[in-house]
Amino acid sequence: MSDLVTFGETMLRLSPPNGERLEDVREFEVLAGGAESNVAVAAQRLGTPSTWLSKVPESPLGKRVVSELRGYGIETDIAWSHRGRQGTYYIERAGKPRGTKVIYDRDDTAIATAEAREFDVDRIQNARVFFTTGITPALSSTLRDTTASMLKAARQGGTTTAFDFNYRQKLWSTEEANETLTKFFPGIDVLVIAARDARAVLGFEGDPRQLAHKLGSQYDFETVVVTRGSEGAIGWHDSVVHEQEAYETDTVSKIGTGDAFTGAFIARRLAGDDVPTALEYAAATAALKRTIPGDVALVSEEEVEAVVSTGAEEVSR
Amino acid sequence: MSDLVTFGETMLRLSPPNGERLEDVREFEVLAGGAESNVAVAAQRLGTPSTWLSKVPESPLGKRVVSELRGYGIETDIAWSHRGRQGTYYIERAGKPRGTKVIYDRDDTAIATAEAREFDVDRIQNARVFFTTGITPALSSTLRDTTASMLKAARQGGTTTAFDFNYRQKLWSTEEANETLTKFFPGIDVLVIAARDARAVLGFEGDPRQLAHKLGSQYDFETVVVTRGSEGAIGWHDSVVHEQEAYETDTVSKIGTGDAFTGAFIARRLAGDDVPTALEYAAATAALKRTIPGDVALVSEEEVEAVVSTGAEEVSR
Amino acid sequence: MSDLVTFGETMLRLSPPNGERLEDVREFEVLAGGAESNVAVAAQRLGTPSTWLSKVPESPLGKRVVSELRGYGIETDIAWSHRGRQGTYYIERAGKPRGTKVIYDRDDTAIATAEAREFDVDRIQNARVFFTTGITPALSSTLRDTTASMLKAARQGGTTTAFDFNYRQKLWSTEEANETLTKFFPGIDVLVIAARDARAVLGFEGDPRQLAHKLGSQYDFETVVVTRGSEGAIGWHDSVVHEQEAYETDTVSKIGTGDAFTGAFIARRLAGDDVPTALEYAAATAALKRTIPGDVALVSEEEVEAVVSTGAEEVSR
Amino acid sequence: MSDLVTFGETMLRLSPPNGERLEDVREFEVLAGGAESNVAVAAQRLGTPSTWLSKVPESPLGKRVVSELRGYGIETDIAWSHRGRQGTYYIERAGKPRGTKVIYDRDDTAIATAEAREFDVDRIQNARVFFTTGITPALSSTLRDTTASMLKAARQGGTTTAFDFNYRQKLWSTEEANETLTKFFPGIDVLVIAARDARAVLGFEGDPRQLAHKLGSQYDFETVVVTRGSEGAIGWHDSVVHEQEAYETDTVSKIGTGDAFTGAFIARRLAGDDVPTALEYAAATAALKRTIPGDVALVSEEEVEAVVSTGAEEVSR
Amino acid sequence: MSDLVTFGETMLRLSPPNGERLEDVREFEVLAGGAESNVAVAAQRLGTPSTWLSKVPESPLGKRVVSELRGYGIETDIAWSHRGRQGTYYIERAGKPRGTKVIYDRDDTAIATAEAREFDVDRIQNARVFFTTGITPALSSTLRDTTASMLKAARQGGTTTAFDFNYRQKLWSTEEANETLTKFFPGIDVLVIAARDARAVLGFEGDPRQLAHKLGSQYDFETVVVTRGSEGAIGWHDSVVHEQEAYETDTVSKIGTGDAFTGAFIARRLAGDDVPTALEYAAATAALKRTIPGDVALVSEEEVEAVVSTGAEEVSR
Amino acid sequence: MSDLVTFGETMLRLSPPNGERLEDVREFEVLAGGAESNVAVAAQRLGTPSTWLSKVPESPLGKRVVSELRGYGIETDIAWSHRGRQGTYYIERAGKPRGTKVIYDRDDTAIATAEAREFDVDRIQNARVFFTTGITPALSSTLRDTTASMLKAARQGGTTTAFDFNYRQKLWSTEEANETLTKFFPGIDVLVIAARDARAVLGFEGDPRQLAHKLGSQYDFETVVVTRGSEGAIGWHDSVVHEQEAYETDTVSKIGTGDAFTGAFIARRLAGDDVPTALEYAAATAALKRTIPGDVALVSEEEVEAVVSTGAEEVSR
């Protein structure tokens, strides 16, 4: 049985290999990427047995996604579907002033029809943490119900619930997100949220410390983590605020950094670390993720330890 | 003004570059492919100015498709859309006994909503031939109406109408195809149809010569071409049947062979060739297509001439 | 619990991607390959839950191998080692008259030190079939003992033992192989052996039917399968000989064909098929394998069924 | 009819894909590049219908170049030639202290023999701007005459003439360039020139503002743009000098930056912008170009607008 | 000192890696190829120390060519030039009915200006065989003189002269070739010529045995080899004719087959083999070459021996 | 005869081409790399004829390594072996905070058994400089003796001995290295050592100037060079200390920088430069190396001159 169970969509991730524009592309690099599986992989890498639940089309593309995730070491529990598409997304990487662009092609996917009864509730109730993100309920009204059911089942089973707010403007409006996601808040123990989303979607004001405090007190979360990209993160727990700086990186791929952070934070909390220590490992894992192509934090515990303690040498031989 | 105008969907065509299985793919080769644009390119290559009409999403993926087709030398007249997906398809190439497999991901595309009024009817009425295939009305009920309108407009403008039956079992049943497509027959001058489809969808019987004759007499077509893959083709015109063998090839990619055949046939007919001569050039173009990766017949008139007259040398230097 | 458990070495498989010579290579395609994991994957693909046991260095290269195998869908049970190399092999593919060449670099590997006590004997005893090959005891004297122990444990637990003779001239002499492997024979229920090895290593004579019969009677196997490459295979069971032809293929990669055959044979026998039916599915799986790059039979049950019943269409769309 | 017509050579552009040295290269990335077609593409992207005139060999290599340019969306009007080579150039990209190196292989090209009468003068006279660069007359004495004829024809037809000085030390000496190009100046309305060339070739002195002013007054240009690479540009118009800074970029490929700048400047001037606004869009287009591999500014108007107004987000999803 | 010295042009060889058409190419595979260096490499591989003489531009492209040849194991003696281009050629591979096409871009090369005095005559006179081909004098009138001088020097030094007729229709007419090359015949000991060239250029008639005999007697050669592609070769020596069949191959690249044949023939003759034996090794080397990408026969003596004695196994492991 | 002779191991160097993790790699870039051959190539590039001595397996992998080195222009003198592996190493490139990692797979190599008598002592005694590094004696006890013999032979022949300390923690402990390498010191004329190694292995203290001075005086070296990575180097000669800064670079590959430095230093000293000038050229060569993928400094003398005098332009065309 896994200690962490996550639920959500993982897409086929297509990107021009050398920074070409999509409108001129001749070749795609193919990987899998999705917030909830990214979190599961990061947690597994830091020692937490993890399972990803999803609904995936019974097609070569669906198998492709699941195969990659199994290769990363996590368990998967899949509701294979004969209806619905495999979601894909396209990434056009670029630096300043163009910026990386993501194009979603994730309508009418198999997962959009996923209901709670298609999964084994025992998996969730026997886990120590259940995790999903604000992307999942943004995908369909069915998934809003499913997310609610799963959070409820987790709570009933005594499983800690963790949730990354993850607002995606390409999926829904700030109003819809606010209305839907705040309804889940009473069932959530650990909330991870970008400072940007706390302001733009939830309407909070103040510096990140204040955001963490206001969120924590208003909704009675056990833990709140407010992330600020390259400026680090704030952890709020038992009414105490902890600040964590980001490590300096030579960034290869930014996408998935937040998921690496969250997966590591959960893993270290499950391993018994206090919040400041877990934040430190989370920041180290996020920093390592940025040196790795793709969405996923293919790190080892030793590497994370090395970053936390000293930073690695330039060439080790 | 183009002599040939075609209308239909062109998809982004994704295939593992070295014969890998889709469920294990790490890289996709990216090209564009669609029956109606394939025909336009083949005709253009044989000297017929050609234009492809379509409705395409105003997105990098839509631009990608149009850019490739323009590069092949044809004109494009695009209804750019802010709604609807860019269709894609996946090809898994394999020899015996596995066989090449195609997976369509073409639901909810921009073109499914294309109406005749979104295009300039003059383009069609000023052309000498208007061409589409049985794939187009299979994509949506809107496109059934649009196909009907365009065929009617062509007829009214004195433009010859050419139609490739192109039954696709992954898009609709034989019953639906039969019912829909036979309704178009009175408005069609030149019909291209696989012997297999004439039998399985239209219920005709007999050898290919008989199929051609029955089709031609029953529906009052001006010309009927019955294709038989590597066994050649039959042309029926003015109640006379002409037989054309296929040329021997070292096949690299079979997909698009029929479109190369049809495009060349139309081009040579427009250039004044009689049916047997046009069939010969069509067969030569189809043979050359099979030596070319991708969907499209990137041939030159000289190459086609060389195949018709002698076959090319092994190494020319 | 898995129905099939296999034990053996899987190597990192490096090959020039486009048929370049090794002495001129600039790029390697990287995959994993090993007889026992190949068999496990093939069996899993045909519906038998399978686990591969091995000893692998705790290094990025070792993880690379295990990750790929997990991605193919089997379970793995690994004795991670801090000593010993990850075996690699180099493949130089070529047609006539050069022929494909394999260079092993598999001395001093982690697995060469693997002892039976490093693995959970319950896994073997709770499985329905335990499988290994003549490669494993060729790798070290420790592995000879380990192979013997595992076969004995399987027999004690009531697990059927299956063994592919797999003589490798680059690992040992025919004399050593004969002496070592025939000692295992009394503990083996199902023997798979190439006709070539039966003659050159074991000194049997006669046509393949005779070889099967002589082997079966002399050593009291339950089942003997004599393989003959593109000429098919012979199954001997309950003193009855069954002949199976090979399917015609467009071969992309020959390596792993025998393992695909064996894995499918085991899976179908476990599913209750009689020997002739299992041979037919085995031949179909082997034929499909030859259309797939790499060592591993990434097939589906439906594809195997399709080959058995009719052979697949050339292009399915 | 196009608003902008450009004339010049476009070469096949061969470069090692991953920064390898030319003397060790095993693979070339193949693209097309030439100042005048680069300018046409950039202008087209900012909304100005553009045509590129050239003389190109009737060969697969010549077709390769034209095909790529058509794919970028511009019109082409080609004098196809049965004599003369297709020019090529080799790029060896490197950072400090090595620096990117360009090797030209552009002797005896088809375009070197291009005469004005091979092109339709109406295209030039019906355009709103005719553009060429100092590279064209450097290629042959025939092209000096052709450039002169075309500039004269444009002037006679009331078409604005724009010219990028573009001194290339690998093509001719500063003396030859000075003597030839200053003769064209009376026929030129808009001059673009690098500060470096104004000093080294024309012998002007002073800061860029002074260079612009001196050039403008001495030769009676309507507009002068003095470019300074990453330090921005100076525009002089109606005796007023306007300064434009360069935007900060993560540079992928520097080559073609100046052409992107010039194409955008022309497009925005044609769209009615005043000089300072056109310079701002030109700088934004140039900045975006630097994030794009290859010679050509594959940008959209929206992206340029976004840079002008705010700079883009890091990841948009 | 090398036993074999060859003189001629080696070009940069650019080809689309996966059979794409040149007009659609995005990537080139880069290799070096030239008849005389191909012959030197093949001879070296069969044990004859060999040196290739040439004149090459002192540029990264020139160094690229020489570096590759040195890597293949031969010695090089280069007249580095500051004038003249590096010749290139483009290969578009295709099967029937298109056929492989070669486009030369070899005008104005450095080697076209090579004079005999630029090379050390001792190298030629101390060798046992001097070799060049009919391509060299086709490149420039200077090279006609140089070829004549070198052949004369070889003869004076007692070095055997070997010459491959190698008529190239893209370089000169049959009349020019006939006139030029027959003048060299009195200075040549060993002539290699395709049956096709003996007929089309020299006007001989008859079957290949008759061609060999007529050539040998008319021009007083010591040895004549008439090649017939996949139909084998005829050797004429001391008025005796020897026939050699070609080995069956799975062909990857045909180009360079003849050079492999000739290089091996020379090497084996130098090693003391009689003509029939040398022809057998030559045919085996040519067969192996066809399994190797690129122009060059990267074979080993063992491999050639294996083909001569038995043909190799399908998979050796 | 070469002026510089080096002796040591060169490995096959396998690295994921685009920064992928080794545990997820699908493709390896293949190159050769080894300190002593790197030094030979760098020296050759700066005009010193150089030969690399080694013992290499007579296998395609061994030939692969030697072929690449010959291509770079140096001579090779190889003891071909039928026993022992070809060493390989794996590089996982990464920036901060992960850092580049090297995994050696160099046990039981052919070179580990190399004895001095397998090489021609005249090569060493006729050279002007003999060079090896502290890696060689770390590989086996046989190689400790061989290193000692060669250094002794060089000294006897009047050949200057140069030695790069090159401590590798993955090969031996600081104690073993200290004990072994200091024994060689009396036979060494020119020592190159990283400041880090002087401290950690030899136990010296002080700033780099002090380290150089202490080393030089204590062991009676003729010249000592203390390297400090991106902080430059210190040269000590005739009791005088010279300081050299590193040039600023856009680094593509750090590995081999020190070898480029050393090779250039030796070449310039052999060309007659004084120590400060040689250090300047060494620093320039090292800076250029960092812009080049792979281990080897594929530079030209002109490029080094250009860096020493001015630094190169950004784009030269």
Structure, explained:
6 copies of one chain form a homohexamer. The first copy, chain A, is of the alpha/beta class and 317 residues long. Chain A is 36% helix and 23% strand. The first copy, chain A, has 10 helices and 14 strands. The first copy, chain A, has helices spanning 35-45, 60-71, 121-126, 141-157, 174-184, 195-200, 208-219, 257-270, 275-289, 301-309; strands spanning 4-7, 11-15, 27-33, 50-57, 75-81, 88-92, 100-105, 129-133, 160-164, 190-194, 223-227, 233-237, 240-244, 315-316. In chain A, the strands form 2 sheets. Chain A has a 9-stranded mixed beta sheet with strand order 5-4-1-8-9-10-11-12-13, sandwiched between helices. A 4-stranded mixed beta sheet of chain A has the order 3-2-6-7. In chain A, helix 8 (257-270) runs antiparallel to helix 9 (275-289). The longest helix of chain A has 17 residues, at 141-157. The first copy, chain A, is globular, with a radius of gyration of 18 Å. The model of chain A has no long low-confidence stretch (mean pLDDT 96). Chains in contact: A-B, A-C, A-D, A-F, B-C, B-D, B-E, C-E, C-F, D-E, D-F, E-F. The A-B interface holds A 14, 17, 21-31, 59-61, 63-64, 67, 85-86, 88, 90, 92, 103, 105, 107-108 and B 14, 17, 21-31, 59-61, 63-64, 67, 85-86, 88, 90, 92, 103, 105, 107-108.
